[in-house]
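Extended Data, panel c. Modelled sequence:
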Amino acid sequence: MEFPITNKKDLEQKKLELIQWVAETGEEYLIDRMLELKNEPNKDWWDEISEEEKAAIEAGLADEQAGNFMSHEEARKSWEKWLTK
């Protein structure tokens, strides 16, 4: 999954902080895990979920396209008695 970068300067600062942290860490397991992450092929979460999960997501999207949904505010009002203590 990719996250949008809104500011290149912020991204460069994060990279520098990460480089410094990696250079200073004495935890071999962290370095090993980062190498695993680096070498993992990019995976699409869709390929990792079950057929049942895919069907549920597709059904929800179809409902949304058909206008069969309620807003967050409407849902909160509907379920309010169970949401508050």
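The mean pLDDT is 87. This feature is highlighted in the accompanying rendering.
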